[in-house]
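Summary of Year 1 activities. Much of the first year was spent building the evaluation harness for sequence design. The harness presents a backbone, in tokenized form, and records the residue chosen at every position. We chose the following record to illustrate the format because it has been used consistently in internal testing since the harness was completed.
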């Protein structure tokens, strides 16, 4: 179940992210690019930003964040899924929930930065409609993607 992160989730999220990064030979930098994981509520302030965790059986297996850049643009951040939950559709569900949040909050564009080593994640992003663009700002990342959102259908 995807739920908003709560105070106290930071340690489990840090372990998840660190493990996923190390699995692909990437570094975890708590004083730099990963410092947002030390205080999720401050780093992803509601109502314009969101950090969610996939919790099952009392354990956090996934994470995803949406961070506001400006009134029309947000960034998909820290989308990770534990190896034992991959290939089950949970990654697609995390991405769909993040994009739904972005649409609901009026964002027209979502950007993300990733590493070319995260091949499965790249395939997921591309299948969802993300396209490459220039402008990487993260030392760990060598790819940047974006998607232009269409408004959510009216119910």
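For this record, the design step produced the sequence shown next.
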């Amino acid at each position: 179940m995807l739920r908003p992160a709560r105070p106290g989730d930071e340690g489990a999220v840090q372990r998840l992210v660190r493990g996923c990064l190390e699995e692909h030979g990437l570094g975890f930098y708590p004083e730099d690019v990963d410092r947002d994981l030390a205080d999720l509520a401050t780093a992803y302030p509601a109502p314009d930003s969101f950090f969610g965790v996939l919790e099952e059986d009392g354990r956090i297996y996934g994470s995803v964040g949406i961070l506001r850049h400006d009134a029309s643009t947000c960034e998909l951040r820290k989308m990770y899924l534990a190896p034992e939950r991959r290939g089950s559709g949970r990654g697609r569900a995390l991405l769909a929930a993040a994009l739904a949040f972005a649409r609901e909050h009026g964002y027209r564009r979502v950007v993300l930065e990733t590493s070319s080593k995260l091949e499965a994640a790249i395939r997921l992003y591309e299948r969802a409609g993300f396209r490459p663009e220039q402008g990487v700002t993260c030392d760990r990342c060598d790819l940047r993607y974006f998607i232009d959102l269409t408004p959510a259908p009216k119910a």
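The first strand starts at residue 2 and ends at 4. Quantitative recovery figures across the full test set are reported in Table 2.
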